[in-house]
TrEMBL record:
HAMAP family: Ribosome_mat_RimM. PANTHER family: RIBOSOME MATURATION FACTOR RIMM (PTHR33692:SF1). This is Ribosome maturation factor RimM. Keywords: Chaperone, Cytoplasm, Ribosome biogenesis, rRNA processing. InterPro entries: PRC_barrel-like_sf, PRC_RimM, RimM, RimM_N, RimM_N_sf, Transl_B-barrel_sf. Residues 12-101 form the RimM N-terminal domain. An accessory protein needed during the final step in the assembly of 30S ribosomal subunit, possibly for assembly of the head region. Essential for efficient processing of 16S rRNA. May be needed both before and after RbfA during the maturation of 16S rRNA. It has affinity for free ribosomal 30S subunits but not for 70S ribosomes. GO terms for molecular function: ribosome binding. The PRC barrel domain binds ribosomal protein uS19. Residues 112-186 form the Ribosome maturation factor RimM PRC barrel domain.
Length: 189
């Protein structure tokens, strides 16, 4: 099987532990909608995208489990993983999907991984650009109810900006820009 280009792989989850005795694994999803896992017929498993690109796996089944904390766990079975021991060997490995297998987006939507590298600019209360730039998105974290953008700023510590409607006004995938109306004090942190 030819190696897949690692640049075409996107992190969708992380294997946390075996589940049961027949090779099923619990996966912590790295997506805002864990049910998207149900679309995948193949996944790539490894500690990083380069390694995973050589480890394409056919999906046997995907189930979902509601957790006590309100999140959804993905229960994944791969065709080549048939025992608890095999599943245990994959503990803490990342799960990647190929870009060709990702679901299409609605107009105005972007994948979380596409936010990395976007410029964060300030708009006024009427959503008009002020000409000020805060910085560049370095990372995106899930924090319960919303995502947090870690924004790199020149000569200042990184800033965490919550992706909530009063602050984040729009995301423009084509312009690679996130437009924010920061509340008083946010930029002083």
């Amino acid at each position: 099987m030819p190696e897949t280009d690692s640049d075409a792989l996107f992190l969708v989850g992380r294997i946390t532990q075996p589940h049961g005795v027949r090779g099923e694994m619990k996966v912590r999803p790295e997506t805002d909608d864990p049910e998207r896992f149900g679309l995948f017929d193949r996944l790539f498993i490894g500690p990083d995208a380069r390694t995973a690109a050589r480890r394409e796996q056919d999906v046997q089944s995907i189930r979902f489990q509601q957790m006590k904390n309100g999140t959804t766990a993905v229960l994944l079975t791969l065709k080549t993983v048939t025992s608890r021991e095999d599943a245990g060997d994959l503990r803490n490995q990342n799960v990647y999907a190929h870009e060709d297998d990702l679901p299409p987006l609605a107009d105005g939507e972007v994948f979380v991984h596409d936010l990395i590298g976007m410029t964060v600019v300030i708009v006024d209360e009427d959503d008009e650009p002020t000409g000020e730039t805060i910085g560049t998105v370095r990372d995106v974290f899930e924090s319960g109810a919303s995502f947090l953008y870690s924004v790199t700023r020149d000569g200042q510590p990184d800033l965490l900006i919550p992706d909530v409607e009063p602050i984040v006004r729009s995301v423009d995938g084509e312009a690679r820009e996130i437009r924010v109306f920061p509340p008083d004090g946010l930029l002083d942190l």
